[in-house]
Write a structure and sequence with these properties.
- This protein is α+β, with helices and mostly antiparallel strands.
- It has two domains: about 110 residues, Ribosomal Protein L22, Chain A, CATH 3.90.470.20; about 110 residues, Ribosomal Protein L22, Chain A.
- The protein is built from five helices and eleven strands; from the N terminus they run E-E-H-H-E-E-E-E-E-H-H-H-E-E-E-E.
- The strands form three sheets. Strands 7-11-10-9-8 form a five-stranded antiparallel β-sheet, covered by helices on one side. Strands 1-2-6-5 form a four-stranded antiparallel β-sheet, with helices on one face. It has a two-stranded antiparallel sheet with strand order 3-4.
- A hairpin with a 4-residue loop joins strand 8 and strand 9.
- One of its GO terms (cellular component) is enterobactin synthetase complex.
- GO terms for molecular function: holo-[acyl-carrier-protein] synthase activity; magnesium ion binding.
- This is Enterobactin synthase component D.
C-alpha cells in the first residue's frame, strides 16, 4: 500500500467543522527544527517516523483550516500543544496516521484514535473493560471487527477529549461505553465528576478492514470550559 495524505477515512466519521489529514500505508514526514529538539538522540527510528508523520499530518490539517505552518510543541504528557484558537488530536499506528483540528469557537476538544483491527494482547481486555462491556463483547457474533480493540480505541479517543479539559488522568474503568453497531456510533458515560468535561460523550467509528478508527468531539456550546 502506498503512502498518501487524504481525508478519506477519518474524514468520514468526524463532524462538520473538523479538518483531517492522514497517511495510509508506509508512514513518512518531516519535522521543523523546534520539533526535532523534542526527540532525544536515542530516539528509535520507529518513534521518529511516527512522530514526524503525526506532525506532518497536523500541519496538513492546519493548512485546511487556513492556518500557517508552525512548530507543534508538546506538553508534560507529550500531548500536542495546538496554536491559540485551535483544538486537535493526533493518532498513529502501523500503516496509519491522522490529525484532526478545529477552531475553538466551534469545538472545545477533539479526540481521534486508530488501532489495527486485531485482538488485544491476552489479559488486556479485563484491564480496560467494565462488566457490561465484557458481556457485550462476549455476545458479538460478527467476525470482521475485533470488538475488544474497538473498545480500547474508543476509550483512547475519550481520554484525548478528557485530558485537555481536565488536565488529569482518566482510568479505563471510569468510562462506560455503549456501541450502536447499526449506525457505527457510540456513547460514553464518564463515571467521574469533572468541572469541564460533559458526562455524556458521543462519537463514531469506522472499520476499514485493516484498521479501526474512532472519533469523539465536544462542541464549544456544550462545554463549560
Amino acid at each position: 500500500m502506498t503512502s498518501k495524505i487524504s481525508s478519506t477515512l477519518m474524514g468520514t466519521i468526524v463532524p462538520a467543522g473538523i479538518y483531517c489529514s492522514e497517511q495510509v500505508g508506509r508512514l513518512s514526514g518531516s519535522l521543523l527544527p523546534a520539533e526535532e529538539e523534542l526527540l532525544g538522540p536515542r530516539t528509535v527510528d520507529k518513534r521518529r517516523i511516527e512522530f514526524a508523520a503525526g506532525r506532518t499530518c497536523a500541519r496538513g490539517a492546519l493548512r485546511l483550516l487556513g492556518r500557517p505552518s508552525a512548530p507543534l510543541m508538546q506538553g508534560k504528557r507529550h500531548e500536542p500543544l495546538w496554536p491559540e484558537g485551535i483544538v486537535g488530536s493526533i493518532t498513529h499506528c502501523k500503516n496509519y496516521c491522522a490529525a484532526a483540528v478545529a477552531g475553538t469557537k466551534a469545538y472545545a476538544t477533539i479526540g481521534i484514535d486508530a488501532e489495527p483491527n486485531e485482538p488485544l494482547p491476552a489479559g488486556t481486555l479485563k484491564l480496560i473493560a467494565r462488566p457490561r462491556e465484557l458481556a457485550w463483547i462476549a455476545s458479538r457474533k460478527e467476525q470482521d471487527v475485533c470488538w475488544d480493540r474497538l473498545l480500547f480505541s474508543i476509550k483512547e479517543s475519550i481520554y484525548k477529549v478528557w485530558y485537555p479539559l481536565e488536565k488529569c488522568w482518566l482510568e479505563f474503568d471510569q468510562v462506560e461505553i455503549q456501541v450502536h453497531t447499526g449506525t457505527q456510533t457510540f456513547q460514553a458515560i464518564v463515571l467521574r465528576n469533572a468541572p469541564s468535561c460533559p458526562s455524556l460523550l458521543r462519537g463514531a467509528f469506522l472499520n476499514t478492514g485493516s484498521h479501526l478508527l474512532t472519533c469523539v468531539s465536544v462542541r464549544a456550546t456544550v462545554c463549560s470550559h
